[in-house]
Every structure is written in structure tokens, then in C-alpha cells.
Amino acid sequence: MSKPLQTVKSDPHVDLSACRTDFPVLAQEINGEPLVYLDSAASAQQPESVIDAVAEYHRHNHANVHRGVHTLSHRATEAYEAARDAIAGFINARSRREVVFTSGTTESINLVAQSFCRPGLKRGDRILLSQLEHHSNIVPWQLLCEQTGAELLVVPIDERGELDLVTFNRQIESGVKILAIAHVSNALGTVLPAQELIRRAQQHGVPVLLDGAQAVPHMPVDVQALDCDFYAFSGHKMCGPTGIGILYAREQHLERMPPYQGGGDMILEVRFEGTTYNDLPYKFEAGTPNISGAIGLGAAVRYLTGIGMERIAAHESELLRYMTERLSEVPGIRLIGTARQKASLQSFLLDDIHPHDLGTIVDHQGVAIRTGHHCAMPVMDFFGVPGTARASLALYNNRDDVDRLVASLTKAKEIFGR
User: Which residues, 6+ apart, have CB-to-CB distance to 32 below 8 Å?
Assistant: First the structure.
């Protein structure tokens, strides 16, 4: 039987406004101006505790996990598996066996597509996505359709960036074998009605994968309350290292799924006549893992939990409201994505200034934003634009950051004579 999951409690005495000092990168100047970092939807910054946890492993405990009898291997294994426990508690998984380390959301989705779906998928079956998806939740399913003859269905959106639920309700009844959908849109910030979508899918026996890359850093996520089959997310979106992520999956699914990759550590016994696979979750963790990345992600989870995801969500919600109001005051701005339920970011256009030019000008004033299609080209096609500027928030941002953004946009208008 699995041991009870360890939990970390938030500290009500933590001053959220003071958390900015936990992030050493924010203390620098860019082009002679204090850095304003508004690109956390691409990669969030790391607190000192995460940096220290990774450095501690590399300085004192670097060794391979699971395979050694010496002290360093024991230390590395303990830290690696403690990170799994912390993550399982963070998302309220039923068991640590349901938490698989991957390289990120992209690999997690590919794992589900190839290991869970491909063996049983056939010509005429359907996979349901939304028009809001990141490319990482589109291309793996396109590849699967090419391999099996299955068909993609897409739930459309409206001008707010919200799902057309009438169409969804019709599509989910039409032979769909899996619903793979974002929890929060990375391009628009739309918070999808995940529980309602899952409930409707379950009524028709359709398993659900949620792309949680943009949700986990910004709100409490309880996979048992959501009742989803799969949940995928990445460490670097949530104050952790790059190259590490998580696939949560129901244990009964993982038991039935064949391995995604073969190699060391995903086996119990190998003979040329056949191989016996390892127990969960190791059956899906072939080869030497990203040990330092996992340890760093565990530290990030403990950091976020210590602050409290409810407090982070409330802080960012108020700040997003303020940012939306301030941006709306800028003459010539067009807000892209105005859903009634949003999280953490706002995309926009300013007059006829190309987003890349806009991003360069505000960077000269020390303000970092993202420009382009945000790996969500179908969203850009819907709005008839090649790309947008996107300002995205995290727990370390404040109103002064927003004011600096607005001032930099005013400067851009001056430069372009608008």
C-alpha cells in the first residue's frame, strides 16, 4: 500500500509583497532600467530556494538515483523521490504512483497520445480539442491521427475567447475517444470550465486530459476534485527548472498502458526472451532522469505551497484586473481575449505597431513581454492577426510593474508618432 502523501502547509505570516526579493533575477537592471518581468507565461523566474536546492544536489549529492548503494546515490534518490511526494501532495493525487516525471507538458501529452490512445484508436474515431490549444496539445494528436486514421474535432471559440459550449455538447456525443483541452489558455488567459467539460465527457465515457501548464502556477489544482484522467504541466512555468514536468494519470490507466520508452530503470528484469517492466510510476521513466530538475521542481512546489496557492491566485487576480484597466486607458490599444474568467495574462495590439517592434521598444525601457503567436497559431488565425504582445503575471509582480508597462507603451506611441 502507498504511504500517505506528505503535505506542506502555507505560512499565513508570509508577506506576499516581500516575495519579490526571493527572486534574485529581479534585482538587476536592463538597459539602465530596473527589470520588469512580464513574461512568466513563457517561463517563470526561480526563487533562491529553488536555485539553492539544485546547487546543493550538484555540489554535494550528484549521483544516479535508484541504482547505487553508496551514500551519494542514497541522498540523490531521497531528494528525487521526496520531490515526487511533494508534487503528489500539491495536486492532491491519490498516490505517488500516479505522478510520472517527464521533460515537460509536451512529453506528457505525447506519452498519453502514444501509450494510452494509440493502441486502441482506429479509423473513424475522434479526438476532441479546442481552438484555444497550444501547439503542444495539437501536433501530438495530428501525428496520432496520421498513424491511426482517427479524426480531429475542434471546439470553436467566440470573440471573447470563450468556448462555444453548445457546439462542444454536440461534438462530445459524436464518437470521441479522448478530450484533450487546456485548463487555462496560454495565449488569451481564458480559464476553461474544466469541471463542467469533464462532467459532460464522463457522461459519454470519454477520458479527459487537461493541459495544466498555465493553470498550476496561478491557482489551486486538485486532480481528485477535477476528476480528470490525465493532467500535464511543466516545471519552468511554476518557478522551477526547465526540462522537467509531470504527467498525472489515474493509476488504473497507467497499469494498462504500455511503456512509452524502453531503457534502464523502467524494467525489473531483462532477458533476450522478454522483459518484465518496473512498477509504477517507474515503468514510464526510462533512462537516467533529470534528477536536478526534479529536485528543483520539488523545491518550487514547497515554495509555492508555503505561500499558499489561494493567496497567489487572489493577488494575481487583483493585479490582472488592474492591468486590464490600465491597458484599456491607452489610446489605440486592442485587447485580445476578454473572457469573463481569466488568469494571469493579457494579450494586446497597439495601433499598427508590429508586436515585435513593440516588444523591442519596451525592452529598451527594461520591460520584458512576449510577442508573436505564442505557439497558438489557430488562436491568432481566429482573430485575424499574425501575433500579439502578451504581458503575463506571476506572484512577484506588482502594480508598479503594470505602471511601468503602460509608460513604456506610451513611449512606443511617441516613437512611432501615434
Answer: 366
Coil, strand or helix at 228: coil
In DSSP notation, 30-61 reads: ETTEE-EE-BTTT-----HHHHHHHHHIIIII
What pLDDT sits at residue 12? 58
State how far the Cα of 105 lies from the Cα of 139, in Å rounded to an integer: 13
**For the chain, what are the domain ranges?**
16-46+309-412, 52-306
- Looking at residue 10, what is its pLDDT? 55
pTM as predicted:
0.94
Q: Please indicate whether residue 375 is annotated as part of the active site.
A: yes
Show the cell assigned to 212.
Answer: 495544466
Catalytic one of 117, 228, 239, 375 = 375
- Span 52-306: which CATH code? 3.40.640.10
pLDDT of residue 208: 98
Please state the CATH superfamily assignment of the domain spanning residues 16-46+309-412 in this structure: Aspartate Aminotransferase, domain 1 (3.90.1150.10)
Mean pLDDT, the chain cut into blocks of 10 residues (418 residues total):
46 73 97 97 98 98 92 96 98 98 98 97 96 98 97 97 97 96 98 97 98 98 98 98 98 96 89 91 95 98 96 96 97 97 97 95 97 95 96 97 97 88
Cα separation, 253 vs 283, in Å, equals 12
Instruction: Assess whether the region 16-46+309-412 and the region 52-306 belong to the same CATH fold.
Output: no
Q: Considering only CA atoms, which of 350, 348, 352, 357 is closest in space to residue 389?
A: 348
Work out the widest C-alpha separation in the chain, in whole angstroms. Answer: 74
